[in-house]
Amino acid sequence: MAPSIIDQASPQDSAPSSKKPSSSSSDPSVYSIHHAEFSSQPFPSTTSAWLARASLVSSILASDAAARDIANASPVAEISLLKSSGLLKVLGPVEYGGGGQSWEVGYKVIREVAKGDGSIGMLLGYHLLWSKTADIVGSEEQKDRFQKLIIENNYFVGGAVNPRDNDLSITDEGENIIFNGSKHFNTGGVISDLTVLEGVLSGTSNHIFAIVPTSQPGFTFAHNWNNIGLRLTESGSVNISNISVPWNDALGWNATTKAPDPTILNIPFASLLLPTIQLVFSNFYLGIAQGSLEFAKRYTTTNTRAWPFGGDNKASATEEFYILERYGSFHATLLAAEALTDRAGQEISALYLTYSTTRSITARQRGEIAELVAAAKVATTESSLNVTAGVFEVTGSRATGKTVGLDRFWRDVRTHTLHDPVAYKKKELGRFFLLDEVPEPTWYT
């Protein structure tokens, strides 16, 4: 059997790879003090310690988030901060140096980081999903091998898996398979150590996932991500040319028979990959909205002036009825979205805990968790858009200043909530509630 191409990857414990010129990338040395502090502190070992670590990283990122958003540099420094803090390892096996935490905790870590910087919260969320891909669609040997590789080397993982584009083409070349094609979106690819590829094997309808080193000639990044929001996610396009992968790295496939293993790639369990990432989305939407409300709270209490022409004049903005009413409404909305999102996190974590070995969940079980996640997606999409736009009503016109940066929260959620139309989530939920129909698995369900 051919050796895994992954064996050729080199460790990058503190600084991720980057193909951008140094002038367009952030410098990891800006966080030198924090790198040193993290290296001197105990590795988090409890849920509360992980959430405290995420909160600290969030506060570091929040301190200059507006300026970094404007600069739009490739987030090499920010990924180095995630690495040195240990957050990339939160879901990893303890035996390889990971945190051993469940997805329930992982989701809350994503949310916490997104409060300070939506782009970095999103990158962390995608990394956690892609770093666990082999756990969901790979064999037990592949699961163990890739977890060891990712966690021991502290790798950051990106993914070239955009279902709206044509699938990558895969050809069988003896001991290897060859990926070719392109993707319009490739979140985090430019600054990743490893990339998840997905395509269709030529002559079949069978999909194959594989994890490959990013630093190889077959990847050509366009460096063309310059959207209104999530500006530091490096979500631009990529061309993939003749990337060779040994058959034994084809996740969930038998390298000898060159066929998918039906005990691994059974649809209900393997397709949990989709609701898992949909709930990643909900958590960073919620975190961004919570971050905007906390930011607005500080601004209102220190900068916003009371309106002097209302006929019921108050000494300060914090005494005005409409400001209090708006904050109360925003707070209640986000608490409700958080409760639903946490419930979905608890239930999907329980599924993984119970069925990760047997993979024996039913289509009904899979459908029910997909619809709970869909409900969270609806709630977080609508509440985050409402809150991040509405905070300007309680902060005032000066809060629209570019250097203030309050607008970045709305721009971030507006950009990603267009990922897949939430109207279709509502339709699915309607059929589930009214007709008791669970959805068929799709790339977005």
For the structure shown, list the relevant keywords.
3 domains, 445 residues, flavoprotein, two-stranded antiparallel sheet, Butyryl-Coa Dehydrogenase, subunit A, domain 1, Butyryl-CoA Dehydrogenase, subunit A, domain 2, 3-methylbutanoyl-CoA dehydrogenase activity, flavin adenine dinucleotide binding, oxidoreductase, Butyryl-CoA Dehydrogenase, subunit A, domain 3, disordered N terminus, alpha+beta, single chain, 47% helix, seven-stranded mixed sheet, 14 helices
Characterization of the model:
This is Acyl-CoA dehydrogenase C-terminal domain-containing protein. InterPro entries: Acyl-CoA_DH_C (IPR013107), Acyl-CoA_Oxase/DH_mid-dom_sf (IPR046373), AcylCo_DH-like_C (IPR036250), AcylCoA_DH/ox_N (IPR013786), AcylCoA_DH/ox_N_sf (IPR037069), AcylCoA_DH/oxidase_NM_dom_sf (IPR009100). Keywords: Flavoprotein, Oxidoreductase. One of its GO terms (molecular function) is flavin adenine dinucleotide binding. The protein is an alpha+beta fold. It has three domains: 152 residues, Butyryl-Coa Dehydrogenase, subunit A, domain 1 (Orthogonal Bundle), CATH 1.10.540.10; 102 residues, Butyryl-CoA Dehydrogenase, subunit A, domain 2 (Beta Barrel), CATH 2.40.110.10; 168 residues, Up-down Bundle (Butyryl-CoA Dehydrogenase, subunit A, domain 3). 47% of the residues lie in helices and 11% in strands. It contains 14 helices and nine strands. Strands 1, 2, 3, 4, 5, 6 and 7 form a seven-stranded mixed β-sheet that branches. The chain has a two-stranded antiparallel ribbon with strand order 8-9. A hairpin with a 5-residue loop joins strand 4 and strand 5. Helix 1 packs parallel to helix 4, helix 6 packs antiparallel against helix 10 and helix 10 packs antiparallel against helix 11. The N terminus is likely disordered.
